[in-house]
Amino acid sequence: MSKIKVLIVDDSAYSRQTIKKILEEEANIEVVDIAYNGIEAMAKTIKLKPDLITLDIEMPEMNGFTFLRWLMKKYPTPVIIVSSHSDSQTVFKALDFGAVDFVAKPSRLSPTGINSLQKDLINKIRAIKQLKLDRLSKTLELDDSFNDTVSEEYTDQIIKAVGIGASTGGPAALKQIITQLPFDYPCVVVSQHMPRGFTSSFAERLNTISKVYVKEAEEEDELENGRVLICPGGYHMSFKKKGKKVFVSLSEAKMSDKYIPSIDTMMSSLAETFGQKAVGVILTGMGSDGKQGMMEIKRRGGYTIVESEETAVVFGMPNEVIKAGAAKIILPLSDIPIEMIKLAKRSMEDK
Question: What is the CATH number of domain 143-350?
Answer without folding.
Answer: 3.40.50.180
